[in-house]
Amino acid sequence: MFVDSHCHLDFPGLAEREDEILATMAANGVGTALCIGVRLEEFPRVRELAERHAHLWASVGVHPDNADCEEPDVARLVALADHPRVVAIGETGLDYHWHKDAPAWQRERFRVHIRAARATGKPLVVHTRNAAADTLRLMREEGAGEAGGVMHCFTESWEVAEAALELGFYISFSGIVSFRNAKELKEVARHVPLERLLIETDSPYLAPVPHRGKTNEPGWVVHVAEEIARLRELPLAQVEQATTDNFFRLFRHAQRPA
Fold first, then answer.
1. Contact present, 256 and 248 (Cβ < 8 Å)
2. I need a labelling partner for 50 at 20 to 30 A (CA). Which of 30, 115, 158, 231 fits?
3. How many Å apart are CA 218 and CA 22, to the nearest integer?
4. For the whole model, what pTM was predicted?
5. What is residue 34's three-state secondary structure?
6. pLDDT of residue 101
């Protein structure tokens, strides 16, 4: 069984194709997916997906890009995470690509999520873009290692990966690792310890080769695993087993399908 550790099934392009998306998952041996919350206003849709499908799970959080939305506080996140289908806090983190002024509100929001993760005992799903130094600094200052989590859709250097690993975090690779020009990222994928590696689609974005440019979906996470197996010269079954075991070890509130 493969696991897509990060997808957005409530987003346009996927939500209206739910039956088709789930059928493709089944056909490709993708037995579990984590549906990620990015706005509190839209969280009920994410939670409802996980409530209706035993092999889907949910996270709760506010994406660092989202400025025009309900601002979370620790108590609100803790309350929303108190649900058997919610297994993680996030997507959270810092993004200085779209917010080049490096706003203080992003950093405070990230701190709120880390504190909520520590309070709930549920791991963090961390997004970082053009903000690696601040991301790692806040993780250290707020004790993010106590909650643990994953650096999702990883595109940073080996030095950043190593620092995150030292904090006890997992590293997740998306379809970007299959892109021809992602040479540095491929090297990172070769070196992350297999027991700390996850795979994801971030669908509907970042479709892997051979579907690049199309609307991504969880069933295609197998192509991410295939590229990692190729890079590491491992049997695909070994990558499949390791990344699935890693998912259920990290997101310990999620139950492995029978």
1. yes
2. 115
3. 8
4. 0.97
5. strand
6. 87
